[in-house]
């Protein structure tokens, strides 16, 4: 599995320093004055003119916020404007979430007393004027969530009092200015979700007050500079989803304040230093997934006792997982997915025992490794707070132990692609919140747990490629799973029919794949109730009957596979109105009649297989029928025509072209009168003869009268 977007784990949202700043803002606003009682003699014309110029550049103000910015009103009373009590100069401009659009006027630089400048969540566009660098008292700048572009102004580095810069979620491009390293007091720098390129300037290491640095979701490249280690106050660094590479400099782990390291989805490489656990003692989150790290997971990692997110997924870590990993008592998320951990041996999951101590565990993802042996029974002792457990794509064997049912809050259980055998444990029905259960590609057998659908929350069930058997599971088991959207039970030994009720109760189905079983019976007309269906694969079964004409009601259907069954009758004419169909396979059935008219007009169809049926008549030549590589019609001996590449015989001329028609008319017009004449003569003589015979017959049959 792919772990969720690291940004969504929420560690940025509970930022202490943000709270600090916010309270600073509030204090500043309380000290300021907004009352109309302020005497006009203190008005500063410079500020008023600058504000008017600012207003002038705002082209759209849907909430009419700036209506109050008029001449009859003292500018310190204008909405969003805050002035200092004593000097009556503008100290804060706060216009957030008003859908304002326009450019930022350079005259803003004249508001020389401004400390707080907050235009977040509007539609400002264009570039930030360099004049912002004249705001030498500025301590807080928030321009995030706009559509500002261009480069980050170098002159911003003149704002030497600056504590916090937020310019996330814009369209800034170019490099991060080296000069920002001059902002000695800067605590927070947020530039994520832009299009910044180039390297992270080494001057960032000079930001000795920096607490939070977020440069995620850009196009930054190059190394993490060695100098970063000098930013000794750095507590949270988020540079995930960039193109950064190289090793993590040793100095970096020396930053003892570090609590959050989020560098996932880059091209970093190297191994983790063996003493990583010793260095940042407050480390809470280590997210280095989707990089090119290798080597062992250092034993010392268990010293990072505050760790609650450990994401090492999608790297090349190998060897055994440290058996003391579970001493990380605060651990909530553990992802080791897609590495080369374990040695396909019994001891591989030995660390599970210690993990039972991590009572706050939420997500455990061990999928896609080299773990072997059986699933340890102790696994059932993991935290009951578990919401996701992934063991897929390993070499686990033996049976699935009882005990998983204890995880009442589990929403996703993935044990797919292992070598597990035996039956589905009976306590699976105890899950209250399970939404996804994926057990595909194992050797599980027996009947599907009859109470499985006690889990009413289940929407994704994948049991494909096992040895499950049993009759009428649609009616006996699945009928109660009424929120199913994705159902994969293909390649088992399941049998029986699909009842009309099943379709009636499962209109939520989006993907239904039941191919390669021995299901039989006909497809009920109620299949048309599956209005959300996109993918329907019932191929390689023993289905009989006709293709239901109601399939056309599945108006979202894109993939329809019904091949290798015993369907007979004609292909419903209305299939040609399934607008969204892309792939259609009805091959190897016993279908008769003609290819429906209009099939060639379907816009999205790119694969059509009607081979090995008993179809007849003329093959169309337009639409998909123009492309021999996208269609297959072989094994229908009564078809004719079509494009020559298909190799079917020409159709016999019935109506033919105009010339042919003409010939027929000529022939008829000369031959017909003669034929009529001959026929007339014959009939005449025949009638006379008949009369004679009948008379003789009637004579002979008459009772003899005396
Ligand atoms: C208004 O501000 C300007 C520029 O800072 C300054 O030169 C001027 O003296 C101020 N005027 C008053 C009345 O404070
Ligand atoms: C801002 O200051 C500059 C330079 O001092 C001046 O040219 C400009 O007119 C001022 N703008 C306003 C709106 O006062
Ligand atoms: C000026 O703004 C004030 C305060 O919002 C408002 O009451 C007044 O109607 C406005 N005047 C004009 C001419 O728009
Ligand atoms: C900046 O503004 C955005 C959008 O209004 C907001 O979500 C964010 O928390 C602000 N940042 C700071 C540091 O206040
Ligand atoms: C920023 O400082 C530099 C160097 O002191 C100066 O040349 C530049 O004009 C300043 N920029 C602004 C916008 O004040
Ligand atoms: C980011 O910049 C690259 C290269 O300049 C450009 O191709 C891409 O479209 C930009 N992306 C966005 C979201 O602006
Ligand atoms: C960091 O600051 C020091 C002292 O101000 C300066 O000498 C050095 O050049 C700066 N480093 C970078 C990379 O800007
Ligand atoms: C399950 O989740 C619910 C709601 O989120 C929570 O109240 C409950 O404590 C959880 N149960 C366990 C065993 O973690
Ligand atoms: C399944 O649900 C039924 C009805 O809600 C209940 O009677 C039964 O005990 C449940 N079975 C299990 C194994 O949870
Ligand atoms: C449906 O399932 C099949 C088989 O697993 C898969 O290939 C396909 O992408 C799925 N399609 C949709 C729309 O879910
Ligand atoms: C399914 O069809 C195959 C092939 O005709 C046949 O051998 C088999 O007995 C059928 N199975 C069932 C359960 O109908
Ligand atoms: C196809 O139908 C014909 C005639 O009904 C029947 O003889 C034949 O056995 C059927 N073939 C298959 C494979 O069902």
Topology:
Elements: H1 16-31, H2 45-56, E1 58-60, E2 81-83, E3 90-94, E4 101-102, E5 116-118, E6 123-126, E7 140-142, E8 147-150, E9 164-166, E10 171-174, E11 188-190, E12 195-196, E13 212-214, E14 221-222, E15 236-238, E16 243-247, H3 250-253, E17 260-262, E18 267-271, E19 285-287, E20 292-295, E21 309-311, E22 316-319, E23 333-335, E24 340-341, H4 352-355, E25 363-365, E26 388-390, E27 397-399, E28 412-414, E29 419-422, E30 436-438, E31 443-447, E32 460-462, E33 467-471, H5 473-476, E34 486-488, E35 493-496, H6 500-505, E36 511-513, E37 518-522, E38 535-537, E39 542-544, E40 559-561, E41 568-570, E42 583-585, E43 590-594, E44 607-609, E45 614-619, E46 631-632, E47 638-641, H7 658-701
Parallel strand pairs: 3-5, 4-6, 5-7, 6-8, 7-9, 8-10, 9-11, 10-12, 11-13, 13-15, 14-16, 15-17, 16-18, 17-19, 18-20, 19-21, 20-22, 21-23, 22-24, 23-25, 25-26, 26-28, 27-29, 28-30, 29-31, 30-32, 31-33, 32-34, 33-35, 34-36, 35-37, 36-38, 37-39, 38-40, 40-42, 41-43, 42-44, 43-45, 44-46, 45-47
Antiparallel strand pairs: 1-4, 2-3
Keywords: ATP-binding, Cell membrane, Glycoprotein, Kinase, Leucine-rich repeat, Membrane, Nucleotide-binding, Repeat, Serine/threonine-protein kinase, Signal, Transferase, Transmembrane, Transmembrane helix
Membrane topology: Single-pass membrane protein
Organism: Cinchona calisaya
What does this structure look like?
This protein has a domain at 35-174: Leucine-rich repeat, LRR (right-handed beta-alpha superhelix) (Alpha-Beta Horseshoe). 13% of the residues lie in helices and 23% in strands. It has 7 helices and 47 strands. It has a 24-stranded mixed beta sheet, with helices on one face. Strands 27-29-31-33-35-37-39 form a 7-stranded parallel beta sheet. Strand 2 (81-83) and strand 3 (90-94) form a beta hairpin. The longest helix has 44 residues, at 658-701. The structure holds 2-acetamido-2-deoxy-beta-D-glucopyranose (12 copies). The site of one 2-acetamido-2-deoxy-beta-D-glucopyranose has 3 residues, from strand 10. The site of one 2-acetamido-2-deoxy-beta-D-glucopyranose (NAG) has 4 residues, from strand 37. One of its GO terms (molecular function) is protein serine/threonine kinase activity. Residues 45-83 form the Leucine-rich repeat-containing N-terminal plant-type domain.
């Amino acid at each position: 599995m792919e772990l969720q977007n690291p940004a969504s784990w929420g560690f940025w949202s509970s930022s202490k320093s943000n709270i600090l700043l916010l309270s600073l803002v509030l204090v500043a606003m309380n000290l300021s004055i907004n009352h109309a009682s302020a005497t006009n003699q203190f008005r500063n014309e410079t500020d008023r003119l600058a504000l008017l110029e600012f207003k002038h550049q705002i082209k759209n103000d849907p909430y009419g916020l700036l209506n109050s910015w008029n001449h009859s009103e003292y500018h310190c009373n204008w909405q969003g404007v805050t002035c200092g009590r004593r000097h009556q100069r503008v100290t804060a401009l706060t216009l957030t979430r008003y859908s304002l659009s326009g450019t930022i006027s350079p005259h803003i630089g004249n508001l020389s007393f401004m400390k707080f400048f907050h235009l977040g969540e509007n539609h400002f566009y264009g570039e930030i004027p360099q004049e912002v660098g004249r705001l030498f008292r500025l301590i807080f700048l928030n321009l995030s969530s706009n559509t500002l572009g261009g480069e980050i102004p170098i002159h911003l580095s003149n704002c030497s009092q600056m504590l916090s810069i937020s310019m996330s979620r814009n369209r800034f491009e170019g490099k991060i200015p080296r000069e920002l390293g001059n902002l000695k007091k800067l605590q927070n720098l947020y530039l994520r979700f832009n299009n910044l390129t180039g390297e992270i300037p080494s001057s960032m290491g000079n930001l000795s007050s920096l607490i939070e640095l977020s440069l995620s979701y850009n196009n930054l490249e190059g190394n993490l500079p060695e100098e970063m280690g000098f930013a000794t106050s750095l507590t949270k660094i988020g540079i995930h989803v960039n193109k950064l590479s190289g090793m993590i400099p040793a100095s970096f782990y020396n930053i003892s304040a570090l609590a959050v390291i989020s560098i996932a989805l880059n091209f970093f490489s190297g191994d983790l230093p063996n003493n990583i656990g010793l260095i940042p003692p407050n480390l809470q989150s280590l997210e280095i997934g989707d990089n090119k790290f290798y080597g062992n997971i250092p034993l010392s990692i268990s010293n990072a006792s505050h760790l609650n997110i450990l994401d090492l997924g999608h790297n090349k870590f190998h060897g055994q997982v440290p058996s003391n990993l579970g001493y990380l008592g605060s651990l909530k998320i553990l992802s080791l997915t897609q590495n080369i951990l374990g040695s396909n041996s019994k001891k591989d999951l030995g660390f599970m025992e210690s993990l039972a101590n991590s009572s706050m565990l939420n997500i455990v993802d061990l999928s896609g490794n080299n773990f072997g042996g059986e699933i340890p029974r102790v696994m059932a002792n993991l935290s009951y707070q578990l919401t996701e457990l992934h063991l897929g794509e390993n070499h686990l064997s033996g049976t699935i132990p009882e005990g998983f049912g204890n995880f009442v809050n589990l929403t996703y259980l993935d044990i797919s692609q292992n070598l597990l055998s035996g039956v589905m444990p009976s306590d699976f029905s105890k899950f209250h919140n399970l939404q996804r259960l994926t057990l595909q590609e194992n050797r599980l057998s027996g009947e599907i747990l009859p109470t499985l659908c006690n889990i009413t929350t289940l929407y994704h069930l994948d049991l494909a490629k096992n040895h499950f058997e049993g009759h009428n599971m649609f009616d006996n088991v699945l009928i109660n799973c009424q929120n199913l959207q994705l159902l994969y039970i293909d390649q088992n030994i399941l049998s029986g029919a699909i009842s009309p009720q099943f379709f009636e109760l499962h209109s939520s189905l989006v993907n239904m794949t039941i191919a390669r079983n021995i299901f039989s019976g006909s497809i009920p007309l109620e299949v048309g109730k599956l209005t959300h269906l996109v993918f329907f694969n019932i191929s390689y079964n023993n289905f009989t009957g006709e293709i239901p004409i109601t399939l056309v009601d599945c108006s979202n259907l894109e993939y329809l596979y019904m091949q290798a069954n015993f369907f007979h009758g004609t292909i419903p004419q209305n299939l040609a109105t399934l607008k969204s169909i892309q792939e259609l396979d009805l091959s190897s059935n016993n279908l008769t009649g003609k290819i429906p008219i209009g099939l060639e007009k379907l816009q999205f169809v790119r694969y059509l297989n009607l081979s090995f049926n008993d179809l007849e008549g003329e093959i169309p030549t337009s639409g998909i029928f123009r492309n021999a590589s996208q269609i297959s019609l072989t094994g229908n001996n009564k078809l004719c025509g079509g494009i020559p590449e298909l190799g079917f015989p020409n159709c016999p001329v019935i109506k033919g072209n105009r010339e042919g028609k003409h010939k027929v008319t000529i022939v008829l017009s000369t031959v017909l009168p003669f034929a009529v004449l001959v026929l007339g003569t014959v009939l005449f003589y025949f009638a006379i003869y008949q009369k004679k015979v009948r008379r003789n017959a009637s004579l002979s049959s008459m009772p003899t009268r005396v």
